[in-house]
Amino acid sequence: MCTELVKHPMVDEVICAGRHIERAKKFAERLRSEKLTVMRVDMSDIEDLRRAVKDVDMAINAATYFYNLRTLKACAEAGAHYQDLALGEPIEEPKIHLYDALMKELALDQDFKDKGITALINNGMDPGITDAMACHAAHTMDRVYEIRMKDCDIIDATEPISTWSPYLLWRDMVAPARVFVDGRFETRPPFSEEEYYRFPEPIGVQPCYQHAHEEIVIMGHYLRDKGLRYVEFKMCGPDMPYAKAIYDLGLANPNPIKVKGVEVAPFDLLVECLPKPLSMEEVEQKIREGVLRDEIACILTDIIGERKGKTIKATYYAILTLKEANKYMPGTTATSYFVGIGAEAMTELLIEGKITTRGVVSPEALSLSEIEAYFKRLAEKGIIVNEVVHTPMA
């Protein structure tokens, strides 16, 4: 996000902030932009967080959703725009239902409206682009009945590569998957309801499984008045059967077991053994060495609804490869570029005044013109959202 934002003519300064100041400094040395500065901020310290957002126009939480709520409150107090990339339980109440976490964020809506500012929540790849796809369908269909999302990632590498936080990924992997059914939130077992789905080429047929993801709650809230009956999210790709085997064997069990007199949670051991996500320098090095050969990432949403009295199906999808991502931004994976640009494109539109909706808003709450401007900006950065409308059924 910083790499793109410093290029924008309306941006005067970008502050890369976090607890690990040395990482921020290393990134700043790589970027070499006079607009970029670094700052140490500990988001677990509320006063430190308040000081950090006090004199900025906008704060983006690209760290973790654990700190969404406190950062939202700090921005509302400071009169600063806000953005985050995901929804999750706040650190203050880690055991609440995800829907309640969303409601706590939306409770600040009037605070942001009163100050004429916007909080763009759930705005990365998925959630983010997936939600924008659903929003577009909601604006162009009279009714929306079913939303079925799929995230597929195929990595060609000579060693294991993590494109995302292993902890957050596997936290979702082992959690019961949520589905929205006729106005209610239900759960399904992890890795359940196996499906072989044909993705657009060059991906082809891939195994898919139910997966815990926040869009179920978000879309269930925003789109239920459109006649919504069902929402699901599945994780897909050739590695998923191996992940299922790890789960089935109990190797991702979060509960401690005793091994040779030592108590250890298999989940903790698994996460510790998995590789950490690569830095931009490490991505470039792995590509040069022939270790990371390619990656294909895809987000796809099938939506069934009604238009002019006829049932129709629309498929939205975006595909990105490692080579394409590195053409636009060297040192990125397809996944990291998807997530970062998914958020940054929306940031640009807010800066330029093309996002005018105020308050706390997920992409589902934006106008059709705002969503279309978002898709256009994504396309300019190499992420093309395709829409295929299937023949209406009588």
Task: Characterize this entry briefly.
The chain has helices at 2-5, 21-31, 46-53, 68-78, 98-106, 109-114, 129-140, 166-173, 215-222, 240-248, 266-273, 280-288, 322-328, 334-351, 368-380, and strands spanning 14-18, 36-40, 58-61, 81-84, 118-120, 143-157, 177-181, 184-188, 195-199, 204-210, 230-236, 257-259, 262-264, 292-307, 310-321, 359-361, 386-389. It has 394 residues and is α/β, with parallel strands linked by helices. The chain has two domains: 2-120, Rossmann fold; 129-332 and 368-389, Dihydrodipicolinate Reductase, domain 2, CATH 3.30.360.
Structural commentary:
- There is one protein chain.
- By secondary structure, the chain is α/β, with parallel strands linked by helices.
- The protein has 2 domains: 2-120, Rossmann fold (3-Layer(aba) Sandwich); 129-332 and 368-389, Dihydrodipicolinate Reductase, domain 2 (2-Layer Sandwich).
- 36% of the residues lie in helices and 27% in strands.
- It has 15 helices and 17 strands.
- It has helices spanning 2-5, 21-31, 46-53, 68-78, 98-106, 109-114, 129-140, 166-173, 215-222, 240-248, 266-273, 280-288, 322-328, 334-351, 368-380; strands at 14-18, 36-40, 58-61, 81-84, 118-120, 143-157, 177-181, 184-188, 195-199, 204-210, 230-236, 257-259, 262-264, 292-307, 310-321, 359-361, 386-389.
- Strand 14 (292-307) and strand 15 (310-321) form a beta hairpin.
